[in-house]
Amino acid sequence: MFVPKPIGFVSSPYKNSSEIPKGLHTKHDAEGVLKVLREFELGLTDIEGFSHLYVLWEFDRSDSFELLGSPPFDERPHGVFATRSPRRPNPIGLTVVELLGRNNEELHVRGVDMLDGTPILDIKPYMSSVPVENLRRGWLAEAEERKARMNL
Amino acid sequence: MFVPKPIGFVSSPYKNSSEIPKGLHTKHDAEGVLKVLREFELGLTDIEGFSHLYVLWEFDRSDSFELLGSPPFDERPHGVFATRSPRRPNPIGLTVVELLGRNNEELHVRGVDMLDGTPILDIKPYMSSVPVENLRRGWLAEAEERKARMNL
C-alpha cells in the first residue's frame, strides 16, 4: 500500500484528549487552523469556494486498536467500525469542518476535534449531504433516547 | 506515520475507471459489497443500525499526484484538495454509501464509485449531515450553472 505522509498539521486549542468535548449532542464549534505545508499549497487552489471540507488525519497518539469498545458516552460496547473510536486498525480520523477563510497555506476553520499538532493526510471538498430525514443512527440514537428518558 | 493495511476489499460492478459515472449531477446508485476480512469482522458489531456509512479506501491504481488538475466535467484546473481527483498526495478515497444489509463480514451497500477489488482502509458511521441550505460548493456550483446556461 502507499506510504502516508503529512500534507500539513492542525493548529487546535486542544492539547490533550481530555479537553475535547465528547458525548451525546456534543457540538464541535472550536476554531482552528489547517496549516498546509508550502510544497502542497498549490493544491488549495479554488478551495475558498467551499463552505465545508472533509479533513482526513492521523490519530498519531493512538498506538493500538480494539475491535470492540465502549464510547465515552455509552456503557455498551460497539464495533470499532460503528464508532469514531481513535483505536482503529488504520488510525485515520475524519472531521467535517466549516471553512471560515484562507490565508495562503492556512485554512481557518470551525469544528476541529483534533489535538494540536495532528498530522493532516488529506482535505476534500464537501459536495453533498445525506438529507437528515433519510438517516438512521443505530446505537447512537438509542443512547440518546435512553439519556433523554433518564432526564425526564 | 502508521503503515496502512486493508481491512477488506470492495466488490464493485466497475472493472475499470472509464465505467464509473462521472460528471455534474452524477448519481452513484451502483450496488456493491464491502467484504471485510474475517479477522476484523467483530469490528462490524452494531453497524446494521446505521443507514449510511463513510468508506475510506485506497486509490490503489493511482501512482502519482498532481496539485492542479482538471476534473473530467470541467475544463478549468482546480487544486487537488478542492476536487475528488484520484491523484492525491495520500491516495485515499472517501465515499458515502447506503447500507442495505449485512451478511456476516459482508456489507451490501448502494452508492459505490470504487473499482472492483479496491482495498478498504476504514468504515465509519455517518452520524450527521450539514444541512443542504448551509452548503456552498464553489467551482462545482459554477460549473453546473455554466452547463445549465449552455443547455438553455
What is the makeup of the main sheet of chain A? 6 strands, antiparallel, barrel
Tell me the β content of chain A.
Answer: 25-35%
Q: How many domains make up the coordinates of chain A?
A: 1
Task: Assign the CATH architecture of chain A.
Answer: Beta Barrel
Low-confidence stretches of chain A: none
Indicate the CATH class of chain A: Mainly Beta
CATH homologous superfamily designation of chain A: YaeB-like
* Termini separation of chain A: 51 Å
Number of helices of chain A: 1
- Strand order in the largest sheet of chain A: 1-2-7-6-3-8
Largest interface: A-B, 63 and 63 residues
Based on CA atoms alone, the radius of gyration of chain A comes out at 17 Å
Mean pLDDT level of chain A: 93
Oligomer: homodimer
The count of strands of chain A amounts to 8
Order of helices and strands of chain A: EEEEEEEEH
- Which percent range fits the helix content of chain A? under 10%
What is the 3D form of chain A? globular
Task: Say what the CATH topology of chain A is.
Answer: Elongation Factor Tu (Ef-tu), domain 3
The structure class of chain A reads mainly beta
Organism (chains A, B): Alloacidobacterium dinghuense
Domain TsaA-like (chains A, B): 4-135
Keywords (chains A, B): Methyltransferase, S-adenosyl-L-methionine, Transferase
GO molecular function (chains A, B): methyltransferase activity
Architecture blueprint of SSEs:
Two copies of one chain form a homodimer.
Chain A: E1 8-11, E2 31-36, E3 52-58, E4 68-69, E5 78-79, E6 92-103, E7 106-110, E8 119-125, H1 138-150
Antiparallel strand pairs in A: 1-2, 1-8, 2-7, 3-6, 3-8, 4-5, 6-7
